[in-house]
Amino acid sequence: MSENLTKWQKFKRFLKRNMTPTWAKHFSYQVFAFLVSVAMVAGVATYAFTKSYDGRELRFVDGFTITAHTGAFNTRDNTIESITTAIEKGIKIVEVDVRQRPDGTLVMGHDIIMTNSDGVELSAAFEIIKKTDVRMNLDVKESGELNALHDLIVEYNLTNQVFLTGIDESQANDVSEYCPDVAFYVNCVPSRIKIFADDYQQEIIEMLEATGAVGINCNYANASRTLSDLLHKNGYMLSIWTLDTTRQMKRALIIKPDNITTRNPDKLQEVIDNWGE
Known about the structure:
This protein has 10 helices and 10 strands. With 277 residues, it is of the alpha/beta class. α9 (246-253) packs across α10.
């Protein structure tokens, strides 16, 4: 009775029966050589793309900003240290994640808060921010916290000093209801292929008009110069996140965004200062 073997099982049996030490050594060498070749090609391609960015003129939109992602400058995420370090470094926008404890207290935190002792209270961050001209990007993790968040923003008189991200299209109505006087970006995943189509561009603008957002906040991989130009032409802004490598930063800069969020603001500034060298 014949065995019912998978292709992988048949391949392993073939190797066991036919792979002599000499053949195995030759095969291993070929595999190693192939992997080295692939790595070299990838490295050359990365270098070529990076150099091609340097050859382009670097221009900024009016009011271009750099946001220090929470945890920037090798600090711990969502801590007072993260905020104060960024301010000391001269950063004008700092980001924190916003969560709510079971008792309703707003705290800085990325993951769900399980107890009433977890997380640093957001009010402690507001105490620091209100004494400066630094703005704060509040990355909202739960739309249910918007009402309490608005009360806290008003209490510290920070309506014009903070803005919201983390808001998708379905949550925009909640922002309009609970935080009508606070600016926000809508999070979305724009297609880098469809963006060239007039109908798709119209959908994006209509979405922004309907939500009342000041612009789009998206991952750098989904941003493009076409998207940037479309938004600026229609009076909207583009904020992109989270860039940490030199190549990502160079690619992002030529897109002409309004804001770049990074854990390495010092590296981004260095890329800008040494552009074209």
